[in-house]
Amino acid sequence: MMPRLLIIHHTPSPYMQEMFEAVVAGATDPDIKGVEVVRRPALTVSPVEMLEADGYLLGTPANLGYISGALKHAFDCSYYQLLDSTQGRPFGVWMHGNEGTEGAERAINSITTGLGWVQAAETVVVSGRPMKADIQACWNLGATVAVKLME
């Protein structure tokens, strides 16, 4: 069975959509073989889908200094099911904020540390309009985590 990369995202803005599309493009690059990429909005992803994944890409706006309620909801619904069975799985994160993102970054770090997930790439944080380098960083993020699952 192919390793599965689950992209859990909350994309309420054009900037988040642009970043999401770059992450997907990186994760589904034709040079990356044998990895199934599944995309789920944070409000509809199920605990079973999270359990069945071998790696994760998490996308969230940083609203009011915290992760989106949608992403928090996804973890609220699945945290205890994931706790003992997903340790060591690779993940990556992208986020967009117009204000400080430190609280959102801290929240993601707390959740993923608690789950025992392993950060496979540096978090991509964008403020304001994503520039070409930001979009490239999102593409690299998607590709890096997907490649980890090929190994």
From TrEMBL:
<dbReference type="Pfam" id="PF03358">
    <property type="entry name" value="FMN_red"/>
</dbReference>
<dbReference type="InterPro" id="IPR005025">
    <property type="entry name" value="FMN_Rdtase-like_dom"/>
</dbReference>
<dbReference type="InterPro" id="IPR029039">
    <property type="entry name" value="Flavoprotein-like_sf"/>
</dbReference>
<protein>
    <submittedName>
        <fullName>Flavodoxin</fullName>
    </submittedName>
</protein>
<feature type="domain" description="NADPH-dependent FMN reductase-like">
    <location>
        <begin position="50"/>
        <end position="126"/>
    </location>
</feature>
